[in-house]
Amino acid sequence: MAALAASSIAVAMTVAGAVAPAAAESPRPAFYEAPASLPSANGELIRSEKLNFLLDPLKVHTVAYDATRVLYKTTNRTGKSIAVSGSVIVPKTKWVGPGTRPVIGYAVGTQGIGDSCAPSRMFSEGFEYESLFMAGMLARGYAIAMTDYEGLGTAGMHTYMDRVSQGRAVLDIVRTAQRMPSTGLNAKSPVAFVGYSQGGAGAASAAELAGSYAPELKVKGTVASAVPADLRALPEAIDGSLYSLFTWFAIAGLTASYDIDMDPYLNAAGKEMYSEIEEACVFDLLKSAFTNSEDYTTDGAGLTELITREPFKQMIADQRIGRTKPNAPVLVTHSLLDDVVPHRVGKQLATDWCNKGGNVRLSTNATPLHVGGMLNHATEIYAFLGARFAGLPAASSCWRL
Prior knowledge:
By secondary structure, the protein is α/β, with parallel strands linked by helices. It contains 13 helices and nine strands.
């Protein structure tokens, strides 16, 4: 399945980017509109509905698991109460492992920043590539609580790569899943966080924030892979590459979170590009492939230079992951040949956590490219999670970092 997953993603990206123009943003479905007043508790369910899958018109999935689209309350980086959407999927088979059924706080990788890119919508309206990697966890009996993150599906800009907002969104949808009577989960359910790329950052942030933001969760471990833990490294790595769009996703999302007006920094071409990416999804990346950021700024400074200046410098520094010890063992996987997030960034994250006294295992592989690294991430998840949920001790590799 792992090989099929990577090849499917690569083909889908190529086809979508090469022949399909970005679809106009469709009106936001009523489900995603927040009510006038929100619940007081983080993780409180606002509304839910059955989640159907476009690629399963005969609804075969209903035999294997219950899938629910949810809108729940969380708190963003600024402390504002917001509504965020997501998906909760629970196998119908009885849990046969020790204790109660585990729940995975599944942090999705890059989807885009347009509302139509929200995973809980993509399941029903298109192709959600993460479903290829979720299948193995569902087959092992784990429940999945997967957030759409702030502003992805709901009102406002998706605050792409906002460390605090992403981590809190992951933590709070786990709370939501545990409180929903239909899931069979409860406050004693063991919890793990899983994510790759942007999802790796979301999972890693959740691991760091859990102890202070959601101390009641029974966190057993985290798998955080290809984590963009230090955003300073990304423009240099991917500006002018296939993945040029990702840097602009981050700038758009973070400047929205920090209320920074980008207009003074963009030339006419930059302003046009900026308005277009507000509706872009990950499969649109080829439209901006191999473009250079200096072509879009007023003074010709590329993003590598721009983020060394204020107000961007502090904004980027705030997203650094590795400053807080995770409250449970962590597996970090990363390819030496990653062409998006340099391996040295993942290694530094593991080192930083080790220096904080964390229990960390860094698993380095040499699978080509960022997409290829998902294969190792996907295959290494199961043994790690199985051991954590069985209560076995976690082996650390801190001694060799």
